[in-house]
Design brief:
By secondary structure, this protein is an alpha+beta fold. Helices cover 20% and strands 31% of the residues.
Length: 702
């Protein structure tokens, strides 16, 4: 028996000399000796029921049908129609600290599989696998999936759906008999990507209960399963979705599966979140270890394709006045790109848009102490471009058939060396000529015919963009890359190793953004998530929101602005200054603290915050999304603080709502001293807020 254990979770493997199973995954168990191992083994051995096989199956890692498993196997493949049955024997299973490496062989099938399980100090379980063909002839791999058992009390599943401007909408369902499946084959993780799949109990909330999550660290096609079998087994699984013929292994070749990332929490969904944040932030290359996240002004919704240097200089002047640290010039600066029907693929500065090149505007921006960033969409090409006219063969396509278009784009085949080098070298040339600290990299359509020379290549295309991002950073030390895919179409736990920021959604409406940001943040830390103050009248929903509501919505992320700030009136300008100043002063806390989300606020409002690791400071936001259900306002509590410490809780009035539906303010307004215990259980009476308005609270230990 092999037992991996960290602060709050354990996973136990049973090695019987022939096969390897996962006996247990869940709440931390104490030390296991030989006697208690025998007891656990006996306690979890299922009976053999009538009408079934003569032995009961266990939670085998590879779930072979030949060993009596009746559900989905971990591996599926064949050798030209034969060799489809597997029975793996454990060659070795070695524990080192809180990791285990297991090697399985199937001499008849001619396969070897190596899987590594690592339970990190953050209670994140990392799983890495490699499948090798050890026999003569080709092995056609259909899929390899990671699987973990679920406890009996896991009776619901939470996952996410969505579309452009409405990503990551939650859906929670019971785990019934059969297979509950979420598959994505857009060639990217996608707007409808579930980001992680969470099994939980019906009583689990943000702050309490048990949850088991499993996600893929991968930006291509994907599979997420939850399976409940009639023999009582309940499991959660995930892997890469392979297209037919995408992986054919010759003798000696290996398929290295994308990493899977799992965690168990006995502290509700906040535990799932904080486990992920702790692990991600512990990496040596984590972005906040390099420097604080700069306050960013992106110009897309300010200028679109109408690049005018005089107007941009006016915006830059205002940006410098209010404290912006980075300005990003979006689409429209290159080639014949005066609209979205032409120019993609020609990454040279347009003389029409910028007669004097980008040098003068970059110098103007830099002279004000502001960084400059630039937009690219290197994976796509317009047919109306010099690149396509020269190389129509450099797109992903079934031979003899032109794929349908999205935004008048075709997908550039980065698995072809010529196409890859064209993009890399043109982008490199621009970055070498100008002082560019940051690039926003877009990906505006999914892959409908991901075929190169007759073979599916989603996997290779995904690996190519990883490789390109890494190479650009290698050539330009300090370069940061934002991953955008029509907003949130490529946000996943794989891209965090290659990009420094995600554009969370093309939706800038703060009301819509509340849900999108809440659930994207389930596993992705806020320092990765671009959150911007949009225009007074939103460009997506055409609603008008107060500057306070827009600023509060944008604060809990990698904050910024996407708006022609030259249009801001005096009040809006004053609030923008306060927003930027507060963000700069407190971003270290916002991007390092423990997440707290309230279960007490239901239906039409949200309360969320971050508490410093030493529990001496916290920032909370209360957002009234729609009108109140009752006549009076809610009383809210604040969790996650030290119960014996006395705190000063203060409303940040220059960022909070200033217009209420009330005759007088609550008796404590705008500040009060309470202990952490009192804040968690007595709480504060809120003012009567109008819909689509909010409050910002700053809490400090006395």
């Amino acid at each position: 028996m092999i037992h991996l254990s960290q602060a709050r979770s354990s996973i136990i493997f049973e090695h019987d000399g022939d096969s390897l199973a996962v006996l247990y995954w869940g709440k931390k168990l104490g030390a296991i000796n030989e006697k208690s191992a025998d007891a656990i083994r006996s306690a979890l051995t299922k009976p053999a029921f009538h009408g079934g096989l003569d032995v009961s199956s266990s939670n085998l890692i590879l779930r072979e049908h030949s060993r009596g498993w009746i559900g989905h196997p971990a591996l599926r493949g064949h050798r030209g129609g034969v060799g489809a049955s597997n029975s793996f024997t454990v060659k070795s299973a070695v524990q080192k600290d809180q990791s285990m490496i297991a090697v399985f062989v199937d001499a008849i099938a001619g396969l070897e599989i190596e899987i590594t399980y690592t339970l990190t100090p953050s209670d994140i379980l990392l799983m890495d696998a490699k499948v090798t063909n050890t026999a003569e002839g080709d092995y056609f791999l259909d899929h390899f999936l990671y699987w973990l058992p679920l406890a009996e009390q896991a009776n619901e599943v939470l996952d996410f759906y969505g579309h452009w401007t409405k990503e990551r909408q939650p859906q929670r369902r019971s785990i019934d008999y059969g297979l509950l499946t979420r598959e994505g084959f857009e060639g990217r993780s996608g707007h409808d990507y579930t980001i992680t799949q969470v099994a939980l109990n019906h009583a689990t909330g943000f702050r309490h209960g048990e949850a088991w999550s499993l996600a893929m660290a991968w930006s291509g096609n994907n599979i997420h399963h939850v399976e409940r079998l009639i023999d009582g087994h309940k499991s959660i699984g995930a892997g890469e979705y392979l297209l037919p013929g995408e992986v054919i292994l010759k003798k000696g070749e290996s398929y290295v599966a994308p990493r899977a990332i799992a965690t168990f929490s006995d502290r509700g969904l906040d535990g799932v979140t904080n486990n992920h944040y702790s692990w991600i932030r512990s990496r040596s290359n984590h972005i906040t270890k390099v420097r604080p996240r700069p306050l960013t002004l992106n110009m897309w919704e300010a200028v679109y394709f109408n690049h005018n240097e005089e107007g941009i200089r006016t915006m830059v002047d205002k940006a410098a006045e209010i404290g912006v640290e980075r300005v990003v010039l979006d689409d429209g600066w290159f080639g014949s790109r005066r609209n979205d029907r032409a120019g993609l693929g020609d990454w040279v500065v347009s003389k029409d848009a910028w007669p004097n090149g980008l040098g003068p505007i970059i110098k103007y921006i830099n002279d004000k102490g502001i960084e400059f960033g630039l937009w690219f969409e290197g994976e796509m090409v317009n047919r109306d471009s010099d690149l396509y006219r020269a190389h129509p063969d450099w797109i992903l396509q079934e031979p003899g058939r032109l794929p349908i278009e999205g935004r008048w784009q075709q997908v550039l085949d980065l698995t072809k060396e010529g196409a890859y080098n064209h993009v890399l070298n043109q982008v490199d040339a621009v970055l070498s000529e100008y002082n560019i600290a940051y690039i926003k990299w877009d990906h505006n359509r999914h892959l409908t015919d991901p075929i190169s020379d007759g073979r599916p290549v989603v996997r290779k295309q995904t690996e190519a963009i990883y490789r390109m991002f890494d190479e650009l950073k290698n050539r330009h030390p300090g370069l940061e890359i934002e991953s955008c895919s029509s907003g949130g179409g490529r946000i996943d736990l794989g891209m965090i190793e290659h990009a420094d920021r995600f554009w969370t959604s093309d939706q800038n409406d703060p009301l819509e953004r509340q849900q999108i940001q809440r659930w994207t943040g389930l596993v992705i830390p806020p320092e990765f998530l671009g959150t911007h103050v949009g225009p007074t009248v939103g460009h997506q929903m055409h609603r008008t929101h107060s500057i306070s509501f827009r600023a509060l919505n944008a604060l809990f992320g990698h904050a910024g602005i996407e708006w022609n700030i030259s249009e801001a009136d005096a009040k809006e300008t004053q609030t923008l200054k306060a927003y930027i100043a507060f963000y700069k002063k407190h971003r270290d806390l916002l991007h390092s603290g423990t997440v707290v989300r309230s279960d007490e606020i239901v239906g039409n409002a949200q309360l969320y915050g971050t508490v410093s690791l030493d529990k001496k400071e916290a920032i909370f936001t209360y957002m009234q999304l729609t009108s109140l259900d009752n006549f009076g306002p809610l009383l809210t509590t604040f969790d996650g603080l030290d119960k014996e410490t006395t705190y000063r809780i203060t409303v940040v009035e220059d960022l909070s709502a200033d217009d209420f539906i009330q005759k007088r303010a609550p008796g404590w307004w705008p500040a009060l001293n309470l202990t952490g215990d009192q804040l968690a259980h007595v709480g504060l009476q809120l003012p009567v807020l109008k819909p689509e308005s909010g409050l910002l609270f700053h809490i400090q230990a006395l």
